[in-house]
Amino acid sequence: MNESQAREKIATLGRSMFQRGLTFGSSGNISVKIADGWLMTPTNVALGDIDPARIAKLDAAGRHLSGDAPTKEAMLHLAMYRERPNAAAVVHLHSTHSVAVSALANIDPADVLPPITAYYVMRVGRLPLIPYYPPGDQGLAEAVGKQAAKHHAVLLANHGPVVAGGSLEAAAGAIEELEETAKLYLMLQGHRTRFLTPEQVAALRERYPS
Ligand SMILES: [Zn+2]
């Protein structure tokens, strides 16, 4: 995928996510790795209104080269790429159900959501909770970096998910699966529930290693 194709894909995905209510206002951001650095959605722009020509370009050291200023959450993306050399794209959303789950008092910080469906296990896998940090705090990127080597998806407490993928489609598919699973989890609160068994989860992990 060349740079102009990547710019178009970011704008198309952003519009689709915004129209489907996965992000709102100017929240959420998308990045893609290119040959000489990264493309990243700009700060203070709705994902539904991204101009491909104005997407921020960063060099291989993460410095802003051209286009509008990148998202203030650029450090989250760069922390993921630093620990995951095969990551080709990162998506971060403030998607409603995932944020709601990230604020629940009784979740397991080592793996937030139970295995409700096979697709969740295959696309997301284990989901660690990153402790709360205020916006812009460098500690947040450091905490993401600590989990990123082992996990391509993390959930920021009282904030939202950050997901890396081997392609933009894979990152988008995984973060959407995560959001839908969070929605299912909330729907199931108070209901007697059968999650996948540890044996079923182990068989999926063996068959579809992430
Ligand atoms: Zn955020």
Automatic annotation (TrEMBL):
<dbReference type="GO" id="GO:0005829">
    <property type="term" value="C:cytosol"/>
</dbReference>
<keyword id="KW-0862">Zinc</keyword>
<keyword id="KW-0119">Carbohydrate metabolism</keyword>
<keyword id="KW-0456">Lyase</keyword>
<dbReference type="GO" id="GO:0046872">
    <property type="term" value="F:metal ion binding"/>
</dbReference>
<comment type="function">
    <text>Catalyzes the decarboxylation of 3-oxo-tetronate 4-phosphate to dihydroxyacetone phosphate (DHAP) and CO(2).</text>
</comment>
<dbReference type="GO" id="GO:0016832">
    <property type="term" value="F:aldehyde-lyase activity"/>
</dbReference>
<dbReference type="InterPro" id="IPR050197">
    <property type="entry name" value="Aldolase_class_II_sugar_metab"/>
</dbReference>
<protein>
    <recommendedName>
        <fullName>3-oxo-tetronate 4-phosphate decarboxylase</fullName>
        <ecNumber>4.1.1.104</ecNumber>
    </recommendedName>
</protein>
<dbReference type="InterPro" id="IPR001303">
    <property type="entry name" value="Aldolase_II/adducin_N"/>
</dbReference>
<comment type="similarity">
    <text>Belongs to the aldolase class II family. AraD/FucA subfamily.</text>
</comment>
<dbReference type="GO" id="GO:0019323">
    <property type="term" value="P:pentose catabolic process"/>
</dbReference>
<feature type="domain" description="Class II aldolase/adducin N-terminal">
    <location>
        <begin position="8"/>
        <end position="186"/>
    </location>
</feature>
<dbReference type="InterPro" id="IPR036409">
    <property type="entry name" value="Aldolase_II/adducin_N_sf"/>
</dbReference>
<dbReference type="InterPro" id="IPR050013">
    <property type="entry name" value="OtnC"/>
</dbReference>
<dbReference type="Pfam" id="PF00596">
    <property type="entry name" value="Aldolase_II"/>
</dbReference>
<keyword id="KW-0479">Metal-binding</keyword>
